[in-house]
Amino acid sequence: MPAAAPSLHPWFTPRNLLWASVGVALVTIALKTAAWYVTGSVGLLSDAMESFVNLASAVFALAMVTIAQLPADENHPYGHHKAEYFSSGFEGILIVGVSLGILWAAGHRLFAPQPIEQVGWGLALSVASSVLNGVLAWLMLRSSRVHQSIALEADARHLFTDVWTSAGVLVGIAGAAITGWLWLDALAAIAVALNILREGVSLVWRSSQGLMDEAVEPEVQATIEATLRQFVVAQAPGALRFDHVSTRRAGQRQFVGLHLHVPGSWTLGQAAQLRGQVEQALVSAVPGLRATIELLPTDVEALFHEPEPKEVTT
After folding, report:
1. pLDDT tens for residues 222-255?
2. 2, 137, 199, 203: which has the highest count of C-beta atoms within 10 A?
3. Collapsed DSSP state (helix, strand, coil) of residue 297
4. Alpha-carbon gap, residue 291 to 284, rounded angstroms
C-alpha cells in the first residue's frame, strides 16, 4: 500500500497555497531588492532575480491549477488534469533563463569585484525572505502529496531551491566581508546560478514525461498488481486472470486499463458483477484511480501489434 498522505487543514488547497505564493513572492521581491540596493552585492541581485521567477511561476501555476480542476467535457472526456504539467514546464524554462542571466552578471563581477556595503542590513533582509519562502514551501510540499498536484510540488521545490540559494549567497557575502576577498560574492552567485539551472532542467524533464503519459509510480503499480492477485487467488486455479495491465498519470488523476478473463461458461451478469468488485477494490486501494476493465473469456486473447504486457496470475 502507498504511504498515507499527511493530513492538512482544509484551507491548504492548491489554489489557496498558490495565492499565498503570489503574495510571498511580492514580499520577498521587495526584501531582496532592498538587500541588493543597500549592499550592492551581485549575489543578492541574483537572489532577487529568482524571486521574480517565483512570482511569474506562482501566477502561471495558479492559472493552470484552475484549468486542471475543470470537469471533463465533450472535447476533454478525460478531464483537464494535464494542465499542471504546463505549469511546471513553464516554471522550469523561466528558471533556466534566469540562471543564464545570473551567470552573465556574476561573470562580469568576478573579474571586476566591487565592495559590499551595509552587510548587516542586507543579510537581515535576505534571511527574513528566506524564512517566508521556507515555511510556505514546506506547507506546499505537504499539500502536493495530499492533492497529487505536480504544479504545487514544482512551486514548492522551486521555493526550497530559493531558500538554499539564499543560504549560499549569505555564505558568499559573509565570506567576502570577513576575508576581504570580494570575488567570493561573485563566486557564490555563480554557484547559485548553477543550482538554479539544475532545478530548471529537472522541472522541464519531469513535465515532458508527464505530457507523454508516464506510468504511475512503481509503488502504485505494485499495489494495483497485489489487488488484482487477490481476485486470482480467490478463484479456482486457471479460472481467472488479468493481462494487458497498463497505467498512466495525468496530473492529479491516475488511470489503469486491463483485460479481465473469466470462464466462458459464466453469464454476463456474473462477469459484470466481478468486474464491479475489481474496480471498487482498485479505487479503494489507490484513491483517485480510474479503471477501465474489458471482459474476455479465458480462451480468447486480444491481438496487439505491440509487445505483450505482463500478466497477473497466481
Report:
1. 999 999 999 988 887 878 889 889 998 776 678 8
2. 203
3. strand
4. 11
Region(s) of the chain under CATH 1.20.1510.10? 14-211
CATH class for the domain made up of 14-211: mainly alpha
Angstrom distance (rounded) from CA 259 to CA 241: 8
Residue 43 C-alpha cell reads as 549575489
Taking a C-beta distance cutoff of 8 angstroms, is the pair 259, 244 a contact? yes
- With H, G, I as helix, E, B as strand and everything else as coil, classify residue 7: coil
Query: Ramachandran region of residue 224, left (φ > 0), alpha (ψ -120 to 50) or beta?
Result: alpha
Q: What is the pLDDT of residues 8-44, one digit of tens each?
A: 566 778 788 889 888 888 888 888 888 777 777 666 7
Superfamily designation of domain 218-297: Cation efflux protein, cytoplasmic domain (3.30.70.1350)
CA distances from 113 to 41, 105, 108, 146, 171 (A): 10, 11, 8, 47, 17
Is this prediction's pTM over 0.85? Answer: no
